[in-house]
Amino acid sequence: MRGLEYIHVDVFSPSPYSGNSLAAFLDSAALNTKQMKRITQETRHFESIFLEPCSEPNTVRARVFDFV
Questions:
Q1: Structural domain containing residue 42
Q2: Domains in the chain: how many in total?
Q3: Is the C-alpha dihedral spanning 43, 40, 23, 15 positive or negative?
Q4: pTM of the model
């Protein structure tokens, strides 16, 4: 598997290091559902979001997975 870039963000809080941890993958077009679930488990964040560009301008498909 190729390397994946993601950003780590805190959500549901205006203060750094006090919200829920979230891994955001900005281009997940090459991943399938099984890979997304496994990556979420591997990162050990509460949740991960996988974004995929759409053909419509300024629009993305978003899939969210919980760590279970």
A1: 6-66
A2: 1
A3: negative
A4: 0.84
